[in-house]
Structures are given as structure tokens and as C-alpha cells.
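Entry for the shared binder. Reason: the reviewer on the internal report wants the predicted structure included alongside the sequence.
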Amino acid sequence: MKINYPQLCFTRIAAFVLLTEAALAGASSSPNGDFGRGSSDHAKGYSATGNLTVSETTRTGSASIYSYRFKVAYSDGNWLLESDDDQLAAMGTGLSRHIAAGTDGKDVYIVATLSSESPSDGAKVRPAAPKGQYRVPFLDEPPKGFVPEPQGYVTTGSKPRFDENLQLLWFALLSGRYLQEHGVSDILPFWRLAEMNYYRVHLERCLEPPALPAIVNFVCPEYWYDNNHSPRAFSAPYQNGFIAGDYRVNGWTNFAGLRIPIDFEFRHIVTPKAVSQGGTNSEVTLQCRGRVTGISVLVTNATLPDPPANLTVTDYRFREEAFHIDSMHYKLPKDGWQRASSKMLSKRFAADLSKLPVRGHTPRVPRVVIVSIMLVITTVPIVWLILGQITKSKTNKN
């Protein structure tokens, strides 16, 4: 089973108001509950902590439940998201996952870490890496008995990629500015293998700042793709499409002039395997429920995740189609995260490209060579014919 592994590191959040679980229970019972004292002037930044529970059911009927513990911070378009989850531990790997991601408004910087906890004292241990170190901890399941070193990733844009549950947390608590500036054209449903530009997104946002999503429907259109990638019309009653996933906020709170969701959920709804043959029943195969347990005013700006020393980075900002390259790998320098305009990165990428041949490229043959070959091909038969006629003529004379 393929698994996503991002884990996003969270730093320095100054707290103004911290509330207990009991206070949240009182607030979450009402969609108009107050999570701390409201204000006519809304705070410029905020942070929140909470839990996300994910329940997933496969076509064969097997089910898995795992949880994320998260912290988020937001200020003026910048955000920082940290999560710890037990998805891998629930699969019997003995691993926990920590992800930290943040944006400066232009790019997203990620630190993903896998760790193993000793049953005796809970101390984190890291076995030695075998040869051929595992490089992508959030895309594939790691080898047993081995925990990869922390990995860094940089992607373009200001919204997270790779892990659908982290995208859901960002969408629920941090996406207000992004949706205002970019709309929903590149928002994908929060389940694996969701196709870009296939689902229609119907969005309703809260009118109060930070204008976070309130209701979202991911609508499957009136067609599906067969094995030949050709569109085929759905049978009734799905001839006009159907809702394949939905997001809802069940409870809001007013905090420092902000309207923050404290209870939200997302469902992936699929029709039976015979939907293309006229099936009518549907089932929920993925359900995510998020609850916020604490909110505070962010005194300082949200910062990028703090990278560990000697971090290996996969940077997706550097691409070259002619070489079939979609990223660049490097050790993060001591001065930390680098902008795409960094002279060091530009020189490194140019040096990497200079060492590689262009795949699929056929060197051009000089025109004079082509003309010469054509002359040889056309003149040899003529010369051969003339020589044959001369030889035949001499023979007849004799």
C-alpha cells in the first residue's frame, strides 16, 4: 500500500489565550460559540492546535483508523503547519511520522521525519541507514527495520502538496487568503488519485475574516473514463453527475474578531463498482473529522519550518523537460532555506545539467553529408548500368 509521508515542523508560537478541552466542548456545541473573547478589530495572526481522525474503508471491506495531532499558525498570507500522525504505526511498522511545512507566500518548504519509539521509555531511536538510502519518506513505505534520515522538500506556490490529510488541514484552517486570490481552480479532492480538472468544486466561504471554507462539494461530472481513457456517460440516476466528496464545518467560534472552525469533516463518497452499469447505492469510504482544541493570537509572524543540520533537500522548483528532470537534490547550506533565485542553487543546477546528455535527442547530421549520401545512392545504380552496357557492347563486337 502506497503511503504519503510529509511531516511539518512548527516553531515559536507565542500564546495569548489557551483554552482547555472542557472549554472547547462548551463552544463546539454551538456554531456561534465564543472561543475566547471576541474583538471588533480582528487579529492579524492566529495559531490553533487540535486533532484529525481519519477513518478509511477499502473496497474489500477492511477498515483503518488513524489520527493526526496538528498545530497551525497564520499571519498575512504566510502559514506554518506541523503534524504528528500514527498512520504508519497503525500498519504495524512501529514508525511515527512528523511533518513540518510552511510558506513565505511564494514557495512551500517541508521537513519530513520518520522515527521509531522504544516501547520501554518512548525514546526516539534511529537505526543505521543501509546502502542506497531511502530518499522519499512520504511517498512509499520504507524498508522494515530502517528509519530514513529527515528529508526536505521545496515546491512552488503557497499551498501544500503530497499528503491529502495535510492538504485538508491547510484547507480548513489556513486557506482563506489563497482562495481569495486563486479561487478553486487547482483545489483537488482530499483523497488519493484524485484527478486534476475532473471534479467540479462548489465552494461557500465564511463572510467573516479570515474567510475560510464553510461548505464544499466535489462533484463528479456526467461522464467517466474507461480503460482506453475515453469518456463514457453515466447511467441513470447519475446522468447529471453526483457528489463524490463533501466538506462541512459543524461548529465555528469567534476569536479576536476572527471566525475559526472548531469542528469540521470531509467525506469521500463513492458509488458502487457497477455505477457505470446503472448502480444506485453509494458508500462513504473515507471520513475525516477535525477538532480544534486551542486557539491563540499569533504575536510574531509565522515562520518557515526549522531545518535540521545536514538536511537533504529535493527541490521541485528546478525542472528541465529536455533532460526529463523534475527536481534537484542538494544538501541544505548552513544559512538555511534558499530562494529559487539563489546564486548557489542556480550554479548547482547548471552544473548538474552540464553533466547529463539530452535524453531522446538525436544529433543533427550535417546537410553536406546528407546530400553526399543521396548522390551516392542515386549515382551508383546509373554507373553500374552504364558499365554493364559497355561490357555487353564489347562482348557483342568480339
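Summary line for the report: Residues 367-397 form the longest helix (31 residues).
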